Every structure is written in C-alpha cells, then in structure tokens.
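Technical annex B. To support the medicinal chemistry partners, we prepared a structural model of the target in complex with iron/sulfur cluster, based solely on the information shown next.
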Amino acid sequence: MKVNPAYKTKEDLVELYNTPLMELLYKAATVHREHHNPLEVQMSSLLSIKTGGCPEDCGYCPQAARYHTDVNAQKLMSVESVIEQAKNAKANGSSRLCMGAAWRNIRDNRDFDNVIQMVQAVNGLDMEVCCTLGMMSDEQAKRLKNAGLYAYNHNLDTSEDYYDDIISTREYQDRLSTIDNAKNAGISVCSGGIIGMGESIEDRMGLLMSYIKMDTPPESIPINALVPVEGTPMADQKVVEIWEMVRMVATTRIVFPESVVRLSAGRTSMSKEGQALCFMAGASSIFAGDMLLTTPNPEFNEDKELFEILGLKPKAPFQDGEKPESKTDELIEEKKKKAAAREKELAEARANSEKNSDFAPRKVVSAK
Ligand code: SAM
Ligand code: DTB
Ligand code: SF4
C-alpha cells in the first residue's frame, strides 16, 4: 500500500481537505479511477458475535457496560449461528464477513477457541474473514492467521491529540501495537476512524497522519460517521453533514490511493444522492446488511436498488489478496487430545467399578 507522496504534513492534509468541494471531488475521482475499478464496490457484512458488557469507556460506544443504553450484554454466539449468518450475507452479495466482539482484548480462553473455529468455518465458505476483537498479542494474531483470518479491524478512531477526550481506558500506543501485531502476522489491516465526535479538522487529518507515519498504510480504511446513541456521552452530537463525509472520504482516497476506503457507519442518515457523492469521492466499500453491530444499517434490498441506480456491482472476494489457508489449530487439537484421554480414563474407571460390582457384597450379619 502506498501513500501519495504529495502529502507529508498535517498542514498539507488540512489544505487538501479544505479544497473547494467540486475540485476535491474531481481530484479524488481521478485518483480513484487510476487505482480501482470505480464500478466495483466491496460489500462487507458485520456480525456482532459478542455483544455488550464491554469494560472500556469509548465515549461513542453503546456496548460499553458503564453507559445505560438499550444494548444488553450477551454471551458469545455459537459457531453454527455464525455460519448461518455468514451464508445469508454471502447469498446477499457480501464477499467479506467482519465479526466483532465487545472485548477490551482477546483472552486465551474457550471463547477464543470458538472464534478460531468461526474463522475456519467462514473461510471455508470462500468469504474474506475479518475480526475486530480488541487488543491482540502477536501470538493471538498468528493463531488467527493460521485459522484463515484475512483481515483485522482495529480503528485508531481519531488523532492522537484528541484520543484522550474520547477514551481513557487504553492508550493510542496500545492500538498501534495491535495493528503492528496483525501486520507482522501477515494479516491485512483494516483501520480507520469516526467523524462527528466534536473533533476538529486538524484531528481528522491527525488520524490520517497516523497512517502516513506507518511503514505501510492500512489495506482498508473505514470512515464512520458517528451514530449518536442514547445513553452514551455522545448521544447529543449533531449528525455529520454529508459534505463533511464527502470531504473525509475524498481526502482519504487521495492520500491513500491504493487502500480500500469504506463508507462505514452512518449510512441510514445519508440520502442516496449523498452516498453517490461518497462513491464518486472514492469510497470502494460499504458495510452491507440491516445491522452494523448494534445499530441499524440500510437493508440489502435498499443497497441493491442503490447499486442498480448507480451502475455499481459487488466486488468478488480475494481480488486484492490470496485466500488464506485454514490450518489445524494446535492448541485446540491439544485440548481435544487431553479431553479424549480424560474421557478414556473415566470410561476405564467406570468399567472397572462395574466389574468389581460382580462380586457379591459381603453380608453383614448382625450380632444377636
Ligand atoms: N471492541 C473492539 C474494539 O473496540 O476494537 C471491536 C468492536 S468496536 C465496536 C469497533 C469500532 O466500532 C470502534 O473502534 C469504532 O470505530 C466503531 N464504533 C463503535 N460505536 C460507534 C458509533 N456509535 N458510531 C460510529 N462508529 C462506532
Ligand atoms: C468500523 O470501522 N465500523 C464498524 C466496524 N468497523 C466494526 C462498527 C460500527 C459500529 C456502529 C455502532 C454499532 O452498531 O454498535
Ligand atoms: Fe468496547 Fe470496542 Fe465499544 Fe470500546 S469500541 S467500548 S472497546 S466494544
């Protein structure tokens, strides 16, 4: 992935962002055509595999346990239900499934073993598998890669300067380390941010600067418009103006010409015309399906209609990278072997006690 060499400093980016809108749009559309087929849009479906009850304090998020929202904490979904949802997403044109968990970080427990099995199963359906599970160590990244994970989503969300106003329970550096761990494991990186949280244009460009500073920028950059949710500290934020979204998408497209730019959360508040401008500005992906993680998103049928009007078509999977192989997970195999050995011991013990019970118990004769 390349960075456009014409943009080096935050000031360069702010100037670009503030270009007269029609000029910015034209520039972005031109760059887009040089690097992508503008008629193809990736459809990625989200699935909340573990909803709510999160210990973090991200000010925008309805899944943080400390805010009183309508989201109820649930247990991890079963592998079977995930497969069913993945098949439905695929049948509706999605080439990628992004599984999200309301976790601060991945823990090496049975839930993670189940996620590994979900990744193996969805990869087996010939879909690009993405996960967003919070902070991830290098070992955990390797395990996910080995299971067939294609991409990992971990957003920086905003600039380093504004970050502390939004989240206090983890550091910007934590986020950067997780992104590095994904990259080093050979996993495609998906990382972007949210606009409409009260940040300045400098903060928006500060977010992009963080990606410019990386060795290679993310393969996918999701641009979310804040979905203000009742009960979160950001419930009263004004809905993002479409013009701001167009500017943010266009700027991201120009600066990262090769990356996928995803028109992410917030589409239910955007008109068809507004979304068309975002595609013109270089958006090459959307989240598809009637739910994001916990909030609504346009239904598949609405997007089908939109694609027909605009002459767009869904992008097939694995156009930008090879399908990963799903390999056996050694830890799960080890646990299975141990469980089988325990089961065998138990069966033998049971058989022995039955054999012993053939002997008639000694009669106790009561003394008279
Ligand atoms: N818990 C994991 C984490 O934070 O990395 C994964 C799930 S988390 C919900 C994924 C991303 O969703 C966040 O980084 C944020 O960018 C986005 N998000 C959450 N709530 C949002 C909202 N109300 N509006 C827009 N984007 C939101
Ligand atoms: C991303 O950048 N946006 C998605 C996905 N990555 C995980 C999440 C949007 C969540 C919007 C609020 C909700 O539905 O809970
Ligand atoms: Fe938890 Fe992720 Fe929501 Fe933050 S964004 S509260 S880490 S689910």
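Notes passed to the chemistry partners:
DSSP finds twelve helices and ten strands in the chain.
The chain has one domain: 10-324.
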